[in-house]
Amino acid sequence: MNKVISSIAGKWQQELAAGGYENEVCNSRDFTRLTKLSRTWRYMLTAANLKPGASVFEFGCGGGNQLVPLAVRGYKCSGIDCSEEVLVRCRQFISDVEKFAGEALDIQLVQGDFLSFVSGDTYDLVFNFGVIEHFIDNCEREMAVQTMFHLCKPGGYVVSVVPNGMHPLRERMKREGLGGYQIPEIDYSPQSMAAEMMQAGARQVEVIPYNLFGYMTIAHAPYFLKLMKRLYYYIWQVVPLRLLPSRFVSRHAYGLIGIAKKLA
Description:
CATH architecture: 3-Layer(aba) Sandwich
Number of domains: 1
Order of helices and strands: HHHEHEHEEHEHHEHHE
CATH topology: Rossmann fold
Distance between the termini: 32 Å
Shape: globular
């Protein structure tokens, strides 16, 4: 295997060995919360017109935070992660959720390096949350995006959810390791994300900025100032983004959702 590819997978293995952003379900309240779709997923499922029963594949599935809620809602889920340790925790999470769901969840997990992953199956949706931006090398990142398209059915969708590389605290976030893993990242803009997906085989691409001023909630600050920032953030969440200038939204969104339809 290519040494550079192995080093990227190795960084993730080291980062996730002791723990990641794993969820847990200890009671019925946790389970009820798990079944509620986030705004991000509402955007994605609406744009891709995906209904329960559709097949989805996650590149960098981690502890199952994305796949498990989808499986609970009836989607056929698969995922890959390079860390066996995190997949052990993922399987435990799945087992805990199944006790409250009262049935087995349709989730298939694979341990391996995505850049060398080969499968005979294809999926209605192939996605990653906060993974693709860590591929600093352009060739490796293009390979990862192309692999996502190879795994996607004709007419299906490929989705990447990444940090917005344009917001005011982006450089501080990377410098101080705020809000993410300690692995270098590239800076995505709506334009660069759309161009990358079109080059990989998309028929059409929509890039949705989301979580306006979300970056304000992760910066370290005195308690009162942090409280004021959160209040400011919540006020902006009730403003429909379609009413705001696109340049303003792109500048102050915390993240970007790239939704690409594969050529039929």
